[in-house]
Amino acid sequence: xxxxxxxxxxxxxxxxxxxxxxxxxxxxxxxxxxxxxxxxxxxxxxxxxxxxxxxxxxxxxxxxxxxxxxxxxxxxxxxxxxxxxxxxxxxxxxxxxxxxxxxxxxxxxxxxxxxxxxxxxxxxxxxxxxxxxxxxxxxxxxxxxxxxxxxxxxxxxxxxxxxxxxxxxxxxxxxxxxxxxxxxxxxxxxxxxxxxxxxxx
Length: 201
Description:
The chain is mainly β. The chain has helices at 3-6, 55-67; strands spanning 8-23, 31-40, 43-51, 73-83, 89-100, 109-122, 127-132, 142-147, 162-171, 185-196.
């Protein structure tokens, strides 16, 4: 199987902008800091990201938001992670394209599709880690960690297997008896499929 079919990092973020600020630093390309509100039963979550790349795309979104601050937007890009305080894993998005969103309210989301090599299964935290090739401007690849509601969903899979996962940034439980969600917002897997079986040694 061709190497480029084994790897994918695609994200689709659709919601109501809370913050869209244009950053223009001397000697640097402009980019947008973005916070998007996504309602769900019992509350809402905030997805964080930066729009980089095409300056025309960046300025058009900035101008559109100033003229239409309440209009939902649909953005495409990749999912990203970094270590926060106390080694807490923070998930956000790097975005490249956008369009006004005119679909139904149940289309609001922070979704992702990842393909890569399964390199770790952590039963204590119900997570799996998937390798990723270098992103633009990076010298070496990394990995992304996503959460499962139940690790049994992938207990048959061996590390070294290439898999594809589809999921959403969301709380583990949508709401409690009081209509609130107190679960941390994390990237949860909803579908897993095998791209290529592990080659026996």
